[in-house]
Amino acid sequence: MTKVIECRKAKLAANCDQVFRAETAEEAVRLAAEHAKKDHGLEPIFELFELFWVIMRDE
Ligand SMILES: [Zn+2]
Fold first, then answer.
1. Digit-coded pLDDT (tens) for 1-56
2. Phi and psi of 41, rounded to 5°?
3. What burial letters (b/e) apply to 25-41, b meaning 16+ CB within 10 Å?
4. How far away, in angstroms, is 6 Cα from ligand 1 center?
5. Disulfide check for 18: which of 7, 25, 26, 56 has CB 3.0–4.6 Å away?
6. Longest alpha-carbon distance in the chain
7. Cα of 42 to ligand 1 centre, how many Å?
């Protein structure tokens, strides 16, 4: 099962179409957090990780 996080669902920015796929939930969250920092200037705080966990889906 692949873990998928769509940035669009996190509503960090308007019209961000980045999608992150990983073998594990931890890795998917890590990739998404890296993207949030780099492209949206968001610090990797607890609430951000929590948000990614909520919107994560299986594929
Ligand atoms: Zn984004």
1. 999 999 999 999 888 999 999 999 999 999 999 999 999 999 999 999 999 999 99
2. 65, 25
3. eeebbbbbbebbeeeee
4. 8
5. 7
6. 30
7. 10
* CA 39/CA 24 separation, integer angstroms: 22
* DSSP codes of every residue in 20-44: EEESSHHHHHHHHHHHHHHHH----
Q: How far is the CA of 37 from the centre of ligand 1 (A)?
A: 9
CB distance 10 to 19 below 8 Å: no
Report CA(28)–ligand 1 centroid distance (Å).
13
Q: What is the pTM of this model?
A: 0.93
